[in-house]
Specification:
- It is a single chain.
- Helix content is about 20%, strand content about 35%.
- By secondary structure, the chain is α+β, with helices and mostly antiparallel strands.
- The protein has one domain (about 1-185).
- Strands 1, 2, 3, 4 and 5 form a five-stranded antiparallel sheet that branches. The chain has a four-stranded antiparallel sheet with strand order 6-9-10-11, with no helix packed on it.
- β2 (about 55-60) and β3 (about 70-75) form a beta hairpin.
- The radius of gyration is 19 Å and the shape is globular.
- About 20% of the residues are buried.
Length: about 190
């Protein structure tokens, strides 16, 4: 019985260690002036129930430094815009904020979400044939660390991945809803 009790304490301590970084990180992130986190009523679309964070917050190691980072959808205080922001952490416990996208019209938030993309190889939109790959585009990407998928539900999707050389995020289109559906509807 003592062994079981000891194992339970070790398991709880391990779980607290795994949960603590995300909890502490969320508390330490400074939301930029003029922006706020969405409230429950703003994230009530049925498709959001499939994710514990309602596809509005994602944690991962986005720049590959081994320290957890966070991405969030935020709403402007004037309720005119929403945006995708990333908070990259560093060894000192501070965060650098990156504004990746801003959309006019808060009503679009109903269909927009974010999720974490794990390392791996992925076909891009031009690699899937949505359009011919341009000069700066490649048919496949090899993701070395976590990326952020920014998507419109049942529609277009892009990945924001950290570029170590430029020390910035690069947007890579993964799908384009319009072209895919136009091709399906040809008659």
């Amino acid at each position: 019985m003592r062994v079981l009790s000891c194992l339970l304490k070790v398991a709880i301590a391990g779980l607290a260690f795994l949960v603590a970084p995300a909890y502490l990180m969320a508390a330490d992130v400074n939301i930029p002036d003029g922006w706020r986190t969405p409230i429950e009523g703003e994230l009530n679309a049925g498709w959001r129930k499939k994710d514990a964070n309602q596809f509005a917050t994602v944690s991962g190691d986005f720049n590959g430094d081994g320290i957890p980072d966070e991405a969030r959808l935020l709403i402007s205080l004037d309720l005119q815009r929403f945006g995708l922001f990333v908070f990259l952490s560093n060894n000192s416990g501070r965060f650098r904020t990156y504004r990746l996208d801003i959309k006019a019209g808060i009503t679009q938030l109903d269909a927009m979400g974010i999720s974490k993309i794990l390392p791996g190889n992925y076909k891009t939109a031009c690699g899937k044939g949505y359009w011919e790959c341009g000069k700066e585009e490649v048919p496949t990407i090899s993701v070395k660390h976590d990326c952020i998928e920014y998507f419109k539900t049942e529609s277009a999707s892009s990945y924001f991945c950290w570029n170590n050389q430029n020390k910035s995020f690069k947007r890579i289109w993964i799908s384009d809803w319009r072209k895919k559906h136009l091709q399906l509807c040809k008659w």
